[in-house]
């Protein structure tokens, strides 16, 4: 297993984290397949720890709250040996005020998560989504209160734009509140939007960057092909991933073909190659692995041992490279060649 520091903190985390969005009971929201029950979760969590993973991710809305309960039980006495992250902010009940990032809801949501997780503290608390109605100052004050009480160790954001994260961070720093140390965003070979601003901002601000949906909802497992667009994977996520990419089908098919090609040469799986590509990105702290079965987890975690060549990295990246749109990708990025030569920078 590979490890990294979480942003500018002293916290060491594994470069693969276990995501528990499918831990729960019954059927997932939308009718897509069965959730991972306690017995299955126990086995997956145990295998994760054995593989060297010390980073576990959940949210108060996953499995209608059961994900936190199941994860807490699965960790048991090992809870204090790992980094435990959860998220708040999305609607958790039909009560009008049980959503958003008001001071009231920030405190109440964390207190409820602590009970479900059966723990005294949360290592990393994310704001699951931005709240356009609540002033950032109010939310930031609530987060600082939780840190001062020792109920939360570190805080971060999820699904924010770069300007939202930057504005929130400025308010935290101005008021000397506990500040963001990390962000969690969707990122894969088929979803690279964070490369425009979020990733550069995270590097500039010294924030950790955790990424979810690394296999694009199952599409990058290689089971979805041009000949078999519905795939052989059960559930709606992979089908949605493909239909959502209808306008990019040519690129999507090309990336799957290249994943198969490199995987065959490496005696690996397309999933492992797609995950290994993410680990090459210097701004990615940790990649969150979802697992519906122990076998799926055991297969995917092997990507930590893969080291792609520069040629393989370039071959994959070039197929889904971002479009050069103003002002994100100005030629040279505003660099002055004369100054850079004077400073001895290479490649100018």
Automatic annotation (TrEMBL):
Q: Which residues form the NADP-dependent oxidoreductase domain?
A: 18-318
Q: Which UniProt keywords apply?
A: Oxidoreductase
Oxidoreductase found in the keyword field: yes
Query: Cellular component terms, GO, for this chain's entry?
Result: cytosol
Q: What is one Pfam family matched by this protein?
A: Aldo_ket_red
Q: Name one GO molecular function term.
A: oxidoreductase activity
Record carries keyword Oxidoreductase = yes
Name of the protein described by the UniProt record: Oxidoreductase
Species in which this protein is naturally found: Reticulibacter mediterranei
